[in-house]
Amino acid sequence: MKRNNDYIWGSEYDWPACDKYGYIGIFLTAGGSYAPLSCINNLKIFDLVLKYISKLPQMNCYSTIKSSKDPSSFFTKGCFIYDGDFNGGPYSLEVKPSMLLHIDMIDPVIKSILKVNCFRSISFHEINQITKSTIIEDIEYAYCE
């Protein structure tokens, strides 16, 4: 059964992705932001990716952006954290870790799953907001081909 964003609307859903350089970010939907169809149609698989990342050893890192949020400690694993908006607005960079988790540092099976959600044109280092159109253009076109 194919799902759409209505399936997760109103629920906090976290989804992982990597940027064009292979650095990993976690996106928090806040119950209203857009998530790629690759995640929505494979919720359990991407939940396994999140569980894997959450069990990695903590890095000795700190956030280079001040945030009042504690995004479930993914940043201590070296992940960028982007928080969504309940009204469907863009994701905003909340946490930029000082040490980074790269896709080549993780298990090959998890890596192959996460590669489905790679942004082709953006670097998490360089962008503070990510819109629905960027997700569609960078991730979904590749997923739907």
Architecture blueprint of SSEs:
Layout: E1 14-18, E2 24-28, H1 37-40, H2 43-54, E3 80-83, E4 91-95, H3 108-114, E5 129-130, H4 132-144
Parallel strand pairs: 2-3
Antiparallel strand pairs: 1-2, 3-4, 4-5
| Distance, first to last CA | 18 Å
Strand content: 5-15%
Q: Order of SSEs, N→C? A: EEHHEEHEH
**Are there runs of 5+ residues with pLDDT below 50, and where?**
none
Report the count of strand segments: 5
The largest sheet, given as strand count, sense and whether it forms a barrel, is:
5 strands, mixed
Provide an overview of this structure.
With 145 residues, this protein is an alpha+beta fold. The chain has one domain. It is 25% helix and 14% strand. The protein has helices spanning 37-40, 43-54, 108-114, 132-144; strands at 14-18, 24-28, 80-83, 91-95, 129-130. It has a 5-stranded mixed beta sheet. The chain starts with 13 loop residues before the first strand and ends with a helix.
